[in-house]
Amino acid sequence: MKLTILGAGCWGLTLAYLLTNNFENITVWGRAQDLSEDLINNKHTSKPLEVQLDKKIEITSDMSSAIKDAEIILSVIATSGTRDVCENLKKSGIKNSQILVNASKGIELPSLMRMSQVIKDVLPEQKLAVLSGPTLAKEVLQGKPTAACIACEDIETAKFVQQKLNVADKFRLYTNTDVIGVELGGSLKNVIAIASGFAHEMGLGDNCAGTLLTRGMAEIVRVSIQLGANPSTLYGLSGIGDLIATCSSPLSRNFRVGKMLAQGKKINDILSELGSVAEGVKTSKAICELAKKLDIEVPVSNAIYEAVYTDITPKELLSKLMNRKLKQEERYV
After folding, report:
1. How far apart, in whole angstroms, are the C-alpha atoms of residue 291 and residue 285?
2. Active site includes 2?
């Protein structure tokens, strides 16, 4: 059986490493400009993480050969590039029977579409599933255990992918049919992770950290329910599980973005220093636009949007959040 991974970034290469023994053949596709000679010739990269892949793994920039005969195609493409890659898949002859599994967490701008919606917009008949959960790449590379969720409206497809991608002792997978909830939980928590890193750098304490996670989760649930998610999904692996991991770990790129914002650095300099995508940056804009459209309050997300796109100071942001009009705490279950 063949697995194809689209995207030769940190998470894509980590998945190739993790799933080496699950498949007879594994191909990693990336744009030619993203594939180093070291990766092509030696199956090795040191940026942004040190990864040494098995010699059987093929690295290519040829989409047609990459997807040929693949039963499962894992898409680990940045949100901004997903639509173009889907157009490439269409031109390259992807078959409807091949299962496309999206593992990217974000919302497309300016359409405000979830990634599965973007994929279906280009490939309406494609078999599609979503992979999401607390999956910090460096810990996965180190062999530390985690669990994640495979979401698909067709439970049999979800079960098939679950069996093929599960890795004993390291990567435990659960199925779910709530694609909307799984996608939104994984996407929107990145904004709260930026807020968490911001507060950590300012030295605001553990009480503040707990408050941010709780109120941030309230925003995620509030928006997701309005968009059709099952509330219980948000309290699972792709919601609260992913939120806790990314909001408490310096391994999280979004957490690191928040820390650097609190240091007074500008977003372009931060992203250049990171050397990789932090989806929460663009998602902060997306959730604010969604909230405005739905007439929902998202004060934490709004604060991060201001931190990213304006010259507001950390002290001013904190004051705006803490001195809002008093209100009753909402209940969702």
Report:
1. 10
2. no
